[in-house]
Amino acid sequence: MSHLRRGFTLIELLVVIAIIGVLVGLLLPAVQKVREAAARMKCGNNLKQMGLALHNYQAAQGYFPSGYAASLPYTNGENDTAPGWSWATYILPFMEHDNLYRQFDLTQPIQNYSGIRTTIPMYVCPSDIMPDSGVRVTDQFGSTICLAAPSSYAACCGGDETDVSDPTGLGIYYRNSKTKITDILDGTSQTIMIGERACSNSLGIWAGAVNNGIIQRGPLNKNPGTSTGNAPCLVLAHCNLINTQGDADGGLDDFSSQHPGGANILFADGSVHFVRSVPSRNPDGTYSADGLILQALGTRARGEIVPGDWVN
User: Fold this and answer.
1) 203 alpha-carbon distance from chain centroid
2) pLDDT of 306
3) Kind of pairing, strands 272-276 and 229-230?
4) Exposed/middle/buried for 34, CB within 10 Å: 0-12, 13-18, 19+?
């Protein structure tokens, strides 16, 4: 007696494939959410490590490191930034990169040293998109000055009243700043130190403000125009907008991230908070309520009152 084996019909096979496709479609967003949650947590931990390093530097020196160090007389904040070494360079010994730090003579220009091409894992957000071969820092005419490792983070020089290229600033970090804890009169829990500034939006570096250098747009910058930023913008940002896609200057000097809905921000007390996006001003050009609060958090001693529930 023979037994016939019945296989799948074409219709049954198509149904199974369709069911599998639906299940995969349901599963992928969940996997992506888990990955992004882990990346956001890792990014926050990067900032916490920077906070510890900055406070250890402050304990050793009596003040926080400069936004960037310049020995030339100030003229315009563009071609007077040498040697240019940044806050991120000065804290390398406190982030287990003392050997790299010892390669540099901080009285000499940044571009003299190949060590600036070294990628520092804690200066890279895992959600960000990094250039494969580092950042090519050019002058305004497109001539290459140096190749440097990228950074997903920038120091806060103040609110919108302070430009990154100003000689001073109302924030903690600016040209030759040496801010002390006692200078932060608004309170350390109400003052921003460092924030995300996605390299995919603004091609920043950790080494410093390369003299005559400019910052260029990253591959995911969706702001209008073709503007670039000057040398201090390579390592500094101000509190104006977060994750803007409508800023005429490209949002190069603003905080940004590849996290949905906001960016991780380090405050002067060492805490890290996820601050929601402030993508634009009001339609009439005035500052939004969120924009005014963000600006208040960027200054160190203006006496603004910040709602306690605004920061996550």
Assistant:
1) 10
2) 82
3) unpaired
4) exposed
**Closest by CA position to 275, among listed 286, 290, 287:** 290
CB 206 within 8 A of CB 235: yes
Contact between 218 and 203 under an 8 Å Cβ cutoff? The reply is: yes
**Spatial CA neighbour of 211 closest among 104, 143, 281, 109:** 109
State pLDDT tens for residues 232-268. Answer: 999 999 999 999 999 989 999 999 999 999 999 999 9
> So what's the pLDDT on residue 28?
63
CA distance linking residue 81 with residue 270, whole number of Å: 28
Domain ranges (residues) in the chain: 33-298
Rg (CA), the chain: 23
Please list, in sequence order, all residues whose beta carbon lies within 8 angstroms of the beta carbon of residue 29, skipping any fewer than 6 positions away: none
Residue 232 DSSP class:
G
**pLDDT tens digits, residue range 99-145?**
999 999 999 999 999 999 999 999 999 999 999 889 999 999 999 99
User: Which phi and psi angles does 53 have, rounded to 5°?
Assistant: -65, -40
Asked whether 221 and 248 are in contact (CB, 8 A), the reply is: no
**Rounded to the nearest 5°, which phi and psi values hold at 44?**
-60, -40
Pairing of strands 262-267, 236-239: unpaired
Question: Is residue 303 a contact partner of residue 186, using CB atoms and an 8 Å limit?
Answer: yes
pLDDT at 31 over 70: no
Amino acid letter, residue 309: D
Residues facing residue 272 across a β-bridge: 266
Q: How sure is the predictor about 291, in pLDDT bands with cuts at 50, 70 and 90?
A: very high
- Cα–Cα dist 312/259, whole Å: 15
Residue 70: partners with Cβ closer than 8 Å, 6 or more residues away: 80, 81, 82, 83, 84, 175, 176, 209
